[in-house]
Write a structure and sequence with these properties.
The chain is an alpha/beta fold. It has helices spanning 15-34, 85-91, 95-104, 115-121, 137-143, 170-182, 184-193, 218-229, 237-243, 248-259, 263-281, 286-292, 298-309, 313-320, 322-327, and strands at 2-8, 41-47, 52-53, 60-61, 65-66, 75-78, 108-111, 129-130, 148-149, 155-158, 161-164. 38% of the residues are buried.
């Protein structure tokens, strides 16, 4: 039987992550018992104190056991911790040496959504691919430059460490782990019982590109603003470099460092974000939208759109255009 530790952090944390994980893994045990097998998981809520109050005052979680009393565990779940991530890590610093010790002793670790920030504070994500909520990818990169964070994946796995993307994508990671430990048939039953899309692997369709301006490089900010205000036009790197009295090489280097995108990637993402808004609110056909955002090559537009969103333009429009959805 695998010992599962669901952490109960101090401060504002995701009760949905905690209860959802407990409920779904308990259902796995029930299904196995119904089939004449033994339960697979011993599930415990692991805390730092006998009661953990949520800041709202509405909820109190009572852990099954304190972390100091868990000598050995097999799988650790870290829920999302909300608010200032540095303060959240300080508030829960007592967990960190225990997590590291358990991992070095063979335990696996799964973080949900922005729980990856707390996992990052342990140092265990250094050199590993990971993900987090797409809204906080740039903040994560700044805090943990040694981690390889990706914003398009719903989940990652690297040397026994798992991370999930934004919000309810934690359900997809749980299903993935259930398939690993309990088999595909149980994973399918659980996915059907809880109505979870079992094979969803990308959070790209949900990403809203808002630019990356959390830096102090003014020429780069001005270049970003120019791109965002003139995305319908053909914009070149040389043009931007000349406008801001920089060499092409210098602009590209500074732009990449400040935004984590090349200039070309940034232009593409701004154009595609504009195209997404057209598809969500208007009835223009693909070519009309393509021309509206400054593309002249249909193949290039479709390829770039799918690369960024994970969906073709038609799939995206059919999925998110409210008027079309209600007319079907």
């Amino acid at each position: 039987m695998k010992h599962v530790s669901i952490l109960i952090p101090r401060g504002h944390t995701s009760l949905v992550n905690i209860e959802g994980t407990h409920q779904i893994l308990s259902e796995v045990n029930s299904l196995r018992v119904e089939r004449g097998n033994t339960p697979l998981f011993k599930i415990q809520l692991v805390g730092l104190s006998k009661e953990t109050d949520q800041p709202s005052g509405l909820f109190t979680v009572k852990p099954d056991i304190l972390v100091k009393d868990v000598a050995k565990t097999d799988l650790i779940f870290i829920p999302a911790l909300h608010g200032d991530q540095k303060k959240a890590a300080e508030l829960n610093s007592e967990f960190i040496p225990w997590i590291i010790k358990q991992y070095n002793g063979g335990a696996e670790i799964a973080s949900f959504c922005i729980g990856s920030f707390f996992l990052g504070a342990t140092g265990l994500l250094d050199g590993k691919q990971c993900t987090t909520h797409w809204r906080f990818v740039n903040e994560f990169r700044n805090m943990f430059p040694l981690a390889n964070v990706v914003d398009d994946k719903i989940m990652t796995e690297s040397n026994g460490i798992y991370t999930s993307g934004g919000a309810y994508s934690y359900l997809n990671l749980i299903i993935y782990l259930i398939e690993k430990y309990a088999g595909r048939d149980i994973a399918i039953l659980i996915s059907k019982a809880f109505m979870i899309d079992i094979d969803r692997v990308s959070q790209s369709p949900f990403i809203i590109f808002q630019g990356q301006k959390g830096h102090d490089d003014e020429p780069v900010k001005k270049a970003q603003e120019f791109i965002e205000q003139n995305y319908q036009e053909k914009i070149t790197v040389d043009q931007l470099a000349t406008m801001h009295a920089l060499s092409r090489r210098n602009l590209e280097r500074r732009f990449k460092r400040a935004t984590a995108n090349t200039v070309t990637e940034y232009i593409q993402r701004v154009k595609i974000e504009a195209a997404k808004k057209y598809f969500e609110t208007k009835r223009e056909n693909i070519n009309e939208v393509m021309y509206s955002v400054g593309y002249a090559d249909t193949k290039a537009f479709r390829t770039t759109f799918k690369k960024i969103t994970g969906l073709s333009p038609i799939q995206y429009r059919n999925k998110y255009n409210r008027e079309l959805a209600y007319s079907n």
